[in-house]
Amino acid sequence: MSKQRVRLFVTGKVQGVFFRQTLKVMAKKNDVFGWIKNLKDGKVESVLEGEVEKIDLLIKWAHSGPANARVEDVEIHNEKFTGEFSKFDVLY
User: Fold this and answer.
1) For residues 3 and 50, what is the distance between their CA atoms, to the nearest angstrom?
2) 45 φ, ψ to 5°?
3) For residues 48 and 59, what is the distance between their CA atoms, to the nearest angstrom?
4) Burial, 82: exposed, middle or buried (Cβ in 10 Å; 0-12, 13-18, 19+)?
5) Mean pLDDT across the chain, nearest whole number?
6) How far apart are CA 75 and CA 40, in angstroms?
7) Catalytic pick among 5, 7, 20, 78
8) Which residues are within 8 A (CB) of 18 and not within 5 positions of it... i.e. 6 or more apart?
9) CATH number of the domain to which 59 belongs
10) Could you confirm whether 20 is annotated as catalytic?
11) Which residues constitute the domain of residue 36?
């Protein structure tokens, strides 16, 4: 299976709507590792590592987010897979 690493920047009403926690649950369910955090400018940033198909599922979800979110944009930056993560964390 092919592995991938992406960095996402999600813009819109994505803080205070359980975006980070919901993505963490989905990542764990799909064996995707990395982290997610809120940024001071109102965006959410995340680094995801895992199988390409499972990363694609999370990216697709990120375009809508949880029920109360209003996603305006998802920037996707492909990075070199490192395998450095063994879990998925919400950073503060």
Assistant:
1) 5
2) -115, 140
3) 9
4) exposed
5) 97
6) 17
7) 20
8) 66, 68
9) 3.30.70.100
10) yes
11) 3-91
Question: Are 89 and 35 spatial neighbours (Cβ–Cβ below 8 Å)?
Answer: yes
Amino acid residing at 5 = R
> 82 is written with which tokens?
């490192």
The CA radius of gyration of the chain, in Å to the nearest whole number, is: 12
Amino acid at site 42 = G
Are the beta carbons of 58 and 28 closer than 8 angstroms?
no
For 87, half-sphere exposure in the C-beta direction (CA atoms, 13 angstrom radius) is 3
Dist CA 17 CA 34 (whole Å): 20
Helix-helix angle 19-29:52-62, to 10 degrees: 160
Report pTM: 0.96
Which of 5, 30, 38, 70 is labelled catalytic?
A: 38
Give the residues of the chain that fall short of pLDDT 50.
none
Q: Please give the structure tokens belonging to residue 24.
A: 């963490």
Count of structural domains, the chain: 1
> Do residues 74 and 7 touch, judged by C-beta distance below 8 A?
no
